[in-house]
Amino acid sequence: MALTAVELVQSPAEEPEVLVPPPDVVTTPCDPWPRPYYLEDGLRKVHPYHYTYNTYCKQRWRGRELLDIFATEFRDRPQEYYKDAIECGNVTLNGHKVPSIREIVKNGDVISHTLHRHEPPVTAEPIGIVHEDNDMIVINKPAGVPVHPAGRYNYNSIVEIMRAERGHGWNPLPCNRLDRLTSGVMFIGKHPKAAEKLTDQIMARTVKKEYVARVIGEFPAGDVVCDQPVMQISPKLGLNRARASGKDARTIFKRMAYYPPKARADGASFDLEDRRSDKERARDSKMAWKSKEGYSIVRCLPLTGRTHQLRVHLQFLGHPISNDPIYSNQRVFGPSLAAGDALSDDDEDIISKLSKMGKSEAAEAMEYHDDMMEEYNKKKAEKLTGELCGTCDTPLYSDPGPHELGIYLHARRYACQDGNWEYETSLPEWALPPPDMDGPTLATKETDPLVLVDDVGHLKLRGEMRDGDSTGVNVDELV
Hints:
By secondary structure, the chain is α+β, with helices and mostly antiparallel strands.
């Protein structure tokens, strides 16, 4: 057999891939350990310290000027501060001082901001442990403490407080998120695999969540379903509203208890002597919520997970959370508190009013009027004092009042749809019957908002409620 020579063709050598080096960043000057906490007047406080923020350019920042981003996205310091910080090199782009405050930020850029950091105080209430095993810690989050470092909060966050308690190298992995002002059940993974498993369950909507809220007035009996879409109006302020063009959102509500004013509970007549001044009567006549006497404890079952969904839906139904500094704030939303409003075009006005809260004005929710503590709470509320830090000239805030450390919204129960696990807390103190009044101290099946869930999103409810209706009762009766 003849052999044939075959000429081997050498493939051209592939050029090695050249990876673009990551942008330079600025390193935080220090990482104090132990954390600089101290407890005072029922608050957990943090001594000021130097710190560097590093963040990649967000999509909405692309093509915008550096000063414009700081001026519009961050509200705790005036624009003049950010202008000076850029010009003196405390704000850098990719580790380098920029030639102009008008420098354009591009995709992939890293913005660094070094400053003398002043954190707001949070409650000194400890983080409660509901359950702990080798994979997971189930906690009862105190109201007023953010989950992750964000904005003005860093060490005063759930993640950092737990790290301080368990060791510098311990890395808590939150699996669900609660708003800063909300208390209740949270899951903290001890290792990535456990955290990923539970996070996947929550994202797949196979976990049932139940909250309890305290709202203004007599909430309707029976099952009430609200499916008003929710839209984010201002990322800077964290403001959301009911809007037809927003993201789909659905919540089931069930009244657990109604507590009328003390006079009615005692059977006394309301024909009592009116001791209000002319100024007070004129003020009250403009407050639509004043006709909604007493308060209700409501169980809430969200079927979607939009930001501020429960707070927005309760506001839309005309029964906002009674001490909510945003959605129960008459100075921001007017006398109607935006009940039944999904169409108005006053967003810019709402944003302008809300941006003043905590700056020149104290936040003011309806609960403050009800408790006849308006002036006291204004004096105790967190706002700018007019004083400056001796190190960095940062405007200083007063301590928050007790009424600002949280709202009457509590994540009471989380349960696996398959029945494999369930964790719950007792009712918070504000949901218990007031002194000398009878009421439920436990959540029972009779007040459970959900009768049957075959799969998430498909409901079989009591009464004549049909899937697709906005509410289980006439909205006109609610507002």
